Structures are given as C-alpha cells and as structure tokens.
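Record type: monomer structure entry
Structure origin: computed from sequence
Chain ID: A
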Amino acid sequence: MERSISLYKDIITSPHTLIAGTTGSGKSNVMNGIIREIMLDYTPEEAQMYLFDPKVIELEDYRDTQYCVRYETEFDGMIEALDELIEIMNERYHSMSGQHIKEYQGTRIYLIFDELADALTAPPLKTIGMIKSKLQVLLQKGRASRISVIAASQNPNREIVSGKLTINFTNRLGLRCVDESESKAVVKRKGCELLPKYGKALYLSPDGFSEVKIPLTPNNWELIQRYRKVRPVPVATAQKPVFQPKQNDTAASLIALFGLGLMLFGLLGGIL
C-alpha cells in the first residue's frame, strides 16, 4: 500500500539508508534529492557531508560547497576518511559519556557513498577488507553519535547488498530491479522487479514497508552556488616600492640645488 511521506526528510533523519536498483532506475535523482534535503533543512554548521564518489561524476558538483568536509574518489582516500569519521565518532562517545547522555546533540555528519559496489569489488582484497571493516564500525556505532551512512548501489545482488555489512542499514529504498532475487536482497521481499522504470520505489524502514513516490529533484545549482566555499584571494607577488618624492619634497630639493648653484657661482667669481 502506498503511503504519503516526505521520503527524503525521513531518510536524512534516519540512522543509515541503503539505496539500490538497476542502472537507469533513478538512483542519481534520489541521491541529489537527499543532498538537496540536507542543504534545505540544515545550515553548514548543522550538517556536514563526507562524499565518496568512485565514478567521479555523481557527487562532484557538491565538493566545493560549505557542507562538504571531504570528497574522495580513490579508495585509499576513502580509507583515510573512514578513519577520520571513526575518530570523530569515538570522540563524541567520550563526550557523551562525560555528560551522561545517550545521544550526541551537535552537528550531523553524513557519509554519502555513491557506488558501494565499486568499493566492494574493484580494489585489491586487502583494500576491500579495510573498507568493509571500517564501514561496519560506523554502521554499528554511528547512530548515537549522529553519523549517518547513506549508500547507493547499481549492482543490487546478494553479494553486495546483503550479509553482515548491510544488515545495519535501518532503512532500505528499493528502485527498479532486474528480478526477484535482487529485490529480496535490497528490501527483503519481491516487488522491485515490478516497479516502473522511474517514479516509484519500495521503502523498508522501522515504521514498516510501503510503496513510495520518488519526487523529481529540481536542479540544485542555485543551492550549490549559495553555499559555495569562499576561495581566498591570491596574494600578489611582493615588489619593492618605487620611490616617488612628494610634491613638497621635490620643492625642497629644487631649493637646495638652487642654493648650491649660487654658492658655486660665488666661488668661481672670486677665483676669476
């Protein structure tokens, strides 16, 4: 049964969300819609984004916004960013413990991972293992520290979107899939294979299971320009100032030269 919800608002206030569907099912529209919702609902002081973009095309437009802390396209950079997020998470837990509170109240952090399948298949096995283990830590413990993972995949098979790594995604958005097996891997039941190519999805969340409409995301260019980072103005190469005497200095110099001329004239007259 279809229910009316603000889909993207629900996603950005949930712990972790997995988005999956076959190529051409509208994943890019959804990812841009989620980022748009973050930028509309929160200021850069209230929300920050770590963007992982292995294909270097989906999230590049947002790398220079004030919301973006890190934009990574290489797997080594992603591992460094995951380490940084885990360190932030641990610091937040330490702060929470000192204040005797169970949920962090400060800035939200979103790890937005455009193509999870690339990171779990393309790198060497050692790199895949490091990404999996560090991502798993964030999925297991990030919730209370206000660190959310939003990951997407165009390869929704069981090897990618099931198992220990993805079991901690509290929310799952299934776009059009090729067959029942992919649908079950994404939302744990069949149905995504019957969806139209665009416009609808199956959404599994702690509130239940439903069919949802996927709104068409407007162009985000205005928001991107509004929150673009201010680049420092380059400092011009230092040059030695050219001495230019002031007008009164010039007059004084002329008077001094005139007096010297008179003195020389007098000396010459005495000699002659």
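Annotation 1: Residues 7-222 form a domain with the Rossmann fold fold (CATH 3.40.50.300).
Annotation 2: The chain has one domain: 7-222.
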